[in-house]
Amino acid sequence: MPYSISRARPWRWLALYAGLQMAAWLIAYESGFHAWRVWVGPPRHDIAYGLQLHYAVLLLMPGLALFNAAACVWRPGRTAWLATACCALVWFGYWFNLWPGMPLRWALTQTSGLLALCLPPLLKRMTAGNAPIPWRKTLLSAAALLTAMALAGYWAATHLNLNPSRAVGQIIDKQHDVAVYYNGGVQHVDGRNLTADGYNLGLRYQCVEFVKRYYYQRFGHKMPNDKGHARDFFQPRLASGELNRERGLLQFRNDGGSLPQADDLVVFAPWLFNRYGHVAIVSETGPDFVEIVQQNPGPFGASRERMPLKRVSGALLVGHPRLLGWLRRPPPLADAPTEPAPVAPAKQEAPPRD
Predict the structure, then answer these.
(1) Three-state SS for 303?
(2) Which residue from 18, 94, 106, 348 could staple onto 98, CB 3.0 to 4.6 Å apart?
């Protein structure tokens, strides 16, 4: 017979609800912090924030989780929601000092903590009143709720503009007079960009739209295949230096045979949070770096990024784990001669002899 809150062993439910809150908070916080490092870059180190987080992990959240779980186990109903509201107010006040100096970190800690504290009353609400609540159903409900929260957070982070200081369509950079536009969430789309003659530049303002517009405006280059995601720009079967016929460009691998040059189109492989890949333009090269200019790096990403060069087994490579290679315009054909070739003088015949 399944255990229930109203029957024996309520301490099991207390441990379950408290553990779910701690696990949900840590998972949400670490996931958000990892996404921050990827999309924004390394966060600023702050000793005071580190100590505050340390005390929150060891003392504050465990205490709030136990109090919230106890209210849900022994005082269900409105009392449980009142206890959750009190815990949320304490959590909000504890992190309030972050708002003036670190608003993004404030939003991350507040959101992850408040969502975790709401789990016990929500799980209690999802189950059937005072009827016995089986362990399996509770765990499945918690897993479904966490999954829904994660999916909703991922959709919001990738589709909405979370940077209030910028507007979608705003010019944030230029390379050789070709504009780089701000796109907000990495999966946001603002219609398709077509040239006057119908050539497809891509979806505004994705990374593919920028690199195709760059080659079109700077070189007048039209790709034979004007469709495809960023990952489709690199063809793995081609060797370095071979012609990528779909793009009309030479393809090179990041294998040490050569290095990117200015105006090359670099291609990055897909990964867990971006299944489409990424493309950018090489804006500058140096003795120990390659700089790229890019569109759609995320709400807080930079339009320019420098990748270091590293030596592996004697070969010099671009030090980026997801860089597949780069595309380059074929060398121009030799120009036709502008002056007519000299004509050899006519051979004069010797005068006839008598």
Answers:
(1) coil
(2) 106
Dist CA 260 CA 15 (whole Å): 56
Helix (H, G, I), strand (E, B) or coil at 228: coil
CA-closest candidate to residue 240, choices 224, 259, 226, 222: 259
pLDDT digits (tens, 9 = 90+) for 109-131: 888 888 888 877 776 666 545 44
CB atoms under 10 Å from CB of 196, counted, come to 5
The answer to whether the CB of 90 falls within 8 A of the CB of 61 is no
Looking up tokens 């784990």 gives 321
Return the closest-CA partner of residue 273 out of 38, 46, 7, 113: 38
Token output for 38:
């990827």
Burial class (CB in 10 A: 0-12, 13-18, 19+), 296: buried
**Cα–Cα nearest to 303, from 172, 134, 107, 206:** 172
Report in angstroms the alpha-carbon separations of 183 from 134, 180, 188, 215: 47, 10, 7, 20
CB-count burial class (<10 Å; 0-12, 13-18, 19+) for 10: middle
- The pTM score is 0.62
pLDDT value, residue 343 = 39
Residue type, 225: N
Nearest to 5 by CA among 70, 68, 64, 61: 70
User: Beta partners for 306?
Assistant: 291
Write phi, then psi, for 31 (nearest 5 degrees). Answer: -65, -45
Return the closest-CA partner of residue 206 out of 186, 225, 231.
Answer: 186
Rounded Cα gap, residues 130 and 307, in angstroms: 59
Please count the other Cβ atoms lying within 10 Å of the Cβ belonging to residue 304.
Answer: 15
DSSP track, 155-207? HHHHHS---TT--TT-EEEEETTEEEE--SSTT----EEE-TT--EEEETTSH
Q: Which of 123, 53, 147, 125 is CA-nearest to residue 91?
A: 53
Mean pLDDT of 270-277: 81
CA distances for 63 relative to 19, 37, 191, 227, 288, angstroms: 11, 29, 49, 55, 51
